[in-house]
Structure to design on (674 residues):
């Protein structure tokens, strides 16, 4: 009796596994060939994106946009990859402080460094924005640009996310990877415009997103040209050059890209002005806000979050005709396999 | 007798015309199909460029460079287009001051504006760099970025060069247009990195050079995001943001492009550090200085010129293994037909 039950259970289990595997395999073969946005559910969000792209790429459409003007800009934190429990660059800073502590004994008694070394996040948070900038400059300056890229690559190769155990650059959103590919297949030139450090992103964006270094715009520190042992280097200086956030995102888009995006995608009020800059241009435009609604597969947050705070972006989306993507409803999967 | 002579002359003329036409046709059909650098003479410069490009694009070569790393940067003034009698942007400033004078009556008695209005170039020069910045900000700020692009386009459509009578953007170098095309055909991504104003260049670089706005790096003023009548605009501010010259060219290349160029091309000591940044990188690199040696077809100048001053670039080219292009010797033609 016991054996029969066991057999029955394991048989049921096997059938379930086969069914699930069957579904998954169907999803990733038949659908992914036919459907460039296979990880999006067949809801309104996906349909609206496809309708928009068809309109601006059909040369007989009144909304046609020439290839040279097909610019799309994407925020990074919370839009292309996750940003919880906090911005991944901040986790990088914390790891850097720990690994640099031996060479900086004064950090043992100096906040916010002491807080980081003692895992006392209240003390770190108490140091506020000033403390954050101090930690940023202590860990992001004093080396050449080439050396910094190596530090970022080494960290990504070994660091793991505290709750998922994934490498950070595997916590990118599969539906967004498909959207990037879909836009490129329709001759869009795709850019990142992020508050994150530009040299924290560039070492890996080409491999992960297919976005080359010159199509990544972000915050930056000053650099200084020097000749060392006959070779030209750029030394990273402990001075912030530019913070790419809110009303400076349009400034950066104009400075680096020189055209208004036809599509702009963000997830927080830090992206509000980028969407305004894009969608109040002449002709058909699409503004998209990714809404973090999935507490099971990812995180659910908006108005009260210290990362990706989204208030105006929700309240004014409708009057601006922006698309709100509901992660729980609109996405079949979150991360790549 | 007279008729026979006339006939003979006209026949000889016709034969000459046919011969010349034949040569020309041969040059622009057979050669231009076979030879992507048809306007370059078969001297050492052309051969060195082709040998270099073959080496870095041949996947079996030890010097092979992956497509994603094939970055080439070009200075603009004196490298892609002419810069005499002075920088074309300065001629634009002068024209702008004259057309804005009615709205600025105080300019009649204020240097350097007075000097411009009275064609007293000695007074203008006496105002030095400070005066130049003042004229720049008076003419380049106070409007939206879109309005400024229109002003530049209107000027280019009507202004003519004082000695050639050509539109300024027809005074681009045909051999350089071919070099840009040749590099793109070999999967190079081509950028402008110029001391000129980025928003003075972007309105026309795509049509003239095939270089899109986001691949143009230059000097800039600050801009400020505003909402006007429900539309987002960027207002150009009377404050310089960045001067892209000398040791700040590598800084800008890193900031905007994020990779060291494999090929860097300039014509003055303002490009010296850009060539250093490029050619002291690892792997095979090519630095090129265009040397203005042709007083008949263009201008001849180097060490003592206020535009395109070239001293170190000549003196240290050999030890740096940079290619000096001799315009008189290496170029069959200067401007496009």
């Amino acid at each position: 009796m016991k054996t029969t039950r066991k057999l029955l259970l394991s048989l049921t289990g096997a059938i379930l596994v086969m069914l699930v595997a069957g579904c998954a395999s169907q999803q990733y073969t038949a659908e992914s060939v036919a459907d460039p946005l296979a990880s999006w559910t067949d809801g309104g969000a996906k349909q609206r994106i496809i309708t928009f792209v068809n309109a601006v790429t059909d040369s007989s459409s009144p909304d046609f946009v020439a290839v040279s003007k097909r610019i799309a800009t994407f925020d990074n934190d919370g839009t292309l990859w996750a940003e919880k429990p906090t911005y991944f660059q901040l986790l990088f800073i914390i790891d850097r402080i720990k690994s640099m502590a031996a060479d900086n004994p004064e950090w043992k008694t100096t906040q916010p460094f002491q807080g980081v070394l003692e895992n006392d996040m209240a003390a770190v948070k108490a140091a506020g924005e000033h403390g954050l900038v101090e930690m940023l400059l202590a860990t992001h300056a004093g080396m050449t640009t080439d050396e910094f890229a190596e530090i970022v690559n080494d960290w990504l190769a070994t660091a793991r996310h505290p709750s998922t155990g994934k490498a950070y650059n595997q916590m990118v959103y599969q539906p967004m990877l498909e959207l990037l590919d879909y836009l490129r297949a329709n001759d869009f030139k795709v850019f990142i415009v992020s508050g994150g450090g530009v040299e924290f992103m560039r070492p890996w964006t080409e491999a992960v997103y297919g976005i080359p270094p010159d199509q990544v715009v972000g915050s930056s520190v000053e650099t200084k040209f020097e000749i060392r042992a006959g070779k030209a280097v750029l030394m990273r200086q402990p001075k912030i050059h530019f913070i790419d956030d809110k009303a400076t995102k349009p400034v950066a888009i104009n400075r680096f890209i020189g055209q208004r995006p036809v599509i702009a995608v963000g997830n927080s009020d830090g992206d509000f002005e980028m969407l305004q800059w894009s969608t109040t241009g002449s002709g058909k435009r699409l503004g998209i806000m990714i809404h973090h609604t999935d507490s099971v597969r990812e995180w659910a947050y908006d108005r009260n979050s210290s990362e990706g705070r989204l208030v105006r972006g929700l309240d004014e989306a409708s009057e601006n005709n922006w698309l709100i993507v509901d992660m729980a409803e609109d996405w079949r999967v979150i991360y790549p396999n």
Summary: The interface with chain A takes residues 68, 71, 145, 189, 191, 198-199, 202, 206, 212-216, 220, 223-225, 227, 230-232, 234, 241, 247-248, 250-251, 254-259, 273, 276-277, 280-281 of chain B (CB under 8 Å). Chain B is about 45% helix and 15% strand. Residues 1-32 of chain B have pLDDT under 50 and may be disordered.
